[in-house]
Prior knowledge:
The chain is of the alpha/beta class. It has helices at about 15-25, 50-55, 60-65, 70-90, 105-115, 130-140, 160-175, 200-210, 225-235, 250-255, 270, 290-295, 300-305, 325-340, 370, 375-380, 400-410; strands at about 5-10, 30-35, 95-100, 120-125, 145-150, 190-195, 215-220, 240-245, 275-280, 285, 310, 320, 345-350, 385-390.
Amino acid sequence: MKTIVIIAALDTKGEPAKFFKACIEARGFNTVLIDVNMGGEPSIPPDISAAEVAAAGGGDIHSIRTSKNTGEITPLMIRGAIAKVQALLKAGQLDGIAAFGGASGTTVATSIMKSLPFGIPKFMASSAASIPAYAAHYIDTKDITMMHSVVDIDGLNDLSISVLERAAGGICGMVDASRGAVQPKGERPLITMTEFKFCGECSHYIQDMLRERGYDIIPFHSQGVGDRVMDGLIDQGMFDGVIDLVPAGISEYLFGGNRAANEDRLEAAGRQGIPQVLTPCGFDIISCGPLERQEQNDQLWLNRRIAERKMYIPDKYRVQARTNAEELREIVAVLAEKLNKAQGPVIFLIPTQGWSVLSGKGEPLYEPETNAVFAPYLRERLKPAIVVEEVDAHINSRMFASAVVDALDKMITR
């Protein structure tokens, strides 16, 4: 029998937790009920008590329940619950995890869920799921399934019963269909790659070439979240190599663009010591739409003087502004700092005839004199072991794609 872990605050959610647990067990699953309450004694007995959770997090449940500092005690309970679910996972007693709650309960439960690997079913029924800013925080880069409960699950009534029954069916169906955590690395080396529309042809060439040479590849859309998902999986040890065709999540983060990743971008592969091939695709643009931002005196438009630049505007939402030479130097400074820490081999390939479809000859963001500052500045700041090579080709050419695959292939140990 597979086991589903339930996270609940049993001082206030005991009755619905008992019902939810019974619904899951009626479908033929074991359950482990973990109490994460910080308020008082549980109304039903848990399998893992709040006191045990607090101790695992380095605290004392009595001190926690008398404290008014939620900013201090909540992370402690989350840390303790993570320790407990990780122990269950290691012991083969966690095949899925589920919870229900409002804003606070959802924050605690999804924080715990995020510690589990990709492929382990994670189900959250939340009355706060429809709040856009909250939902993005709850899910972040993890494979968490959110169900909008609509009503606050506080006691049992016709509506909350309906929600809990469907939530139980959801997590049970997911666990029944799941093969568990996705295991890194099969018989063929597994490569990951960032991509987006403006280097689409190159991406397709690379994928075909890699498969022909005996690799498997998983691409991620470099729109900010995709970059961070990829980095998270790299840190789980899933990949044998990285083609960062579009590492521009870091430049978008620096400049406040729409495709921003985070400050840790470009560090995961270096920590894992796996081979990296990078290109400057995306460093030629800042994603700064919609156009209304100019009229609203948006800080990005004001600080970067966006209106004075070359722009590509297919519609009012998708606005791409050309980066300037000083911004390329800013990018290089951050790149060099991150790549110089890499524990594995790194090759940086620069297509001299255009970094994207927007900056090739005759295209709206064509500025070869601006691009020309990048390579020498990068070479000056990178450690000698990192190869920087200019390729006389456009990024979307088969020739450049072949150079990328050749570079990676040389670094991969079979």
